[in-house]
Amino acid sequence: MSDGLGVSGLGTPGLIALFVSAILFTIGVIGVLLRRNAIIVFMCIELMLNAANISLVAFSRLHGIEGQIFVFFVMAVAAAEAAVGLAIIIAIFRHYEVVDLDRFRALKW
Q: Which of the following CATH numbers is that of domain 11-103: 1.10.472.10, 3.30.70.3300, 3.50.50.60, 1.10.287.3510?
């Protein structure tokens, strides 16, 4: 019997969602740590945000709708981050003509 504090109340679909979320987050972390291309690192960060969103939706089954509401805020921040991040990557590409992270150390020119 579940008291609402563990993951046993999620059921099979919730546990599968958490498993998929953990796999996606792990792929994102590995991509950030191992890749040197700024665009791929940027996509891996977005993958980690989406994995966190999947976890929030899975846990909202136990703890109420607040997790799903929080997902909308995370998506709004991710959209703003995508716009600013791509603008920075384009500016770096125009200056260095490459998006390799080893080529620059700071965002000052």
A: 1.10.287.3510
